[in-house]
Amino acid sequence: MWPYPKVIAHRGGGTLAPENTIAAMRCGLDHGFRAVEFDVMLSRDAIPVAMHDPHFGRTVRGAGNVSDFTADQLLAMDAGTWFGPGFAGEPVAAFRQILEFCRRNQVWMNIEIKPAPGFERETGTVVAEMTREFFAAEIAAKGMAGGAALRPGEIDPTLPLFSSFSFDALVAAKAAAPEIPRGYLVDRIAADWRSRLAELEAIALHTNHKHLSPGQAKEVTQAGYGLFCYTVNTPERAREILSWGVDAFCTDRIDLIGADFC
């Protein structure tokens, strides 16, 4: 159930570029990565932008919440200076800009739906609708429109994958774009993971490698689901979890763990 690349650049460029920016996407590509993970949330006017934190102060200077500003205001903000002077002026990226960059460069996407508190269903719906519209031709060409539950041989590896810690956001994404596969994202694997994945008609479970055991990895993969881990930053740990049956992982250390690591 994992037809995608095995090593994915976290937030575009890992530790080498300001996260979730076009500069980060370019950095990952320059290091040979044709697969990226990034975060998407909504502006005040319900336009998706690439941002991890719901408030300013870390990657964008200042105070306030992302959801209090329009997309035009956000896209004019500096998202690079915090990382280093070489990235000064690098703007916040629109989700559509990243979609276009990745299509142009044949980069696969793990799109993490990252709703600000209180905007879970709206974010899942808007992100999914935009993604579905962007990939409409590919969906139609595969005869997928309508979106029944996907079986292993039916997954199109050229389409992106949605992931989220928000169950509600993924429920909304499923309703808005059933043809785009889903992965449920958790810090620790809870006892109800099977029922959660079944309700989402998800193809994969995404989890923190720090809390994963070999037994859990075996249980998930033997149940027929893909197993993805975040965020693995040493080759030694990567080899260990892969030996447990983990299908794929993202990394910040794209300088230490190459795209061809597996």
Write up what this structure looks like.
By secondary structure, the protein is of the alpha/beta class. The protein has a single domain (7-251), classed as TIM Barrel (Alpha-Beta Barrel). It has 9 helices and 9 strands. It has helices at 22-30, 71-75, 95-104, 120-134, 136-141, 167-176, 193-200, 214-222, 235-243, and strands spanning 7-10, 35-42, 48-50, 108-113, 161-164, 182-186, 204-208, 226-230, 248-251. The chain has an 8-stranded parallel barrel, surrounded by 6 helices.
Q: pLDDT under 50 segments (min length 5)?
A: none
Beta-strand content bin = 15-25%
Order of neighbouring strands in the sheet with most strands: 1-2-4-5-6-7-8-9
Q: What does the average pLDDT come to?
A: 95
The CATH architecture can be given as Alpha-Beta Barrel
The biggest sheet, with number of strands, parallel, antiparallel or mixed sense and barrel status, is: 8 strands, parallel, barrel
Distance, first to last CA:
17 Å
Percent helix, as a range, is 25-40%
What structural class do helix, strand and pairing data support?
Answer: alpha/beta
Based on DSSP secondary structure assignment, what is the total number of beta strands?
9
For this structure, what is the CATH class? Alpha Beta
CATH topology value = TIM Barrel
**Radius of gyration over all CA atoms, rounded:** 17 Å
How many helices? The count is 9
Whole-number total of structural domains: 1
Order of helices and strands: EHEEHHEHHEHEHEHEHE
